[in-house]
Amino acid sequence: MADQHRSLIRKRTVLSRVGLGNTSIYKRIKEGTFPKPVPIGDRAVAWDSEAIDRWIENKISEGTL
Questions:
Q1: What are 8-45's pLDDT values in tens digits?
Q2: 40: domain range?
Q3: 59: Cβ contacts below 8 Å, ≥ 6 apart
């Protein structure tokens, strides 16, 4: 997805893009196998779109999603 601009994406978009549920994502963050969100407000977080793209590409390359 090199033609897209880097952006911060919210959880709903991350969930949709990676095909995992909320619990699975936070479990993988705790394990260190999923990108950590960045704070964007007092009670809001988002993910770096490039980090999510890399995670997806790695999973496809490994054959594990």
A1: 999 999 999 999 999 999 999 999 999 999 999 999 99
A2: 8-62
A3: 65
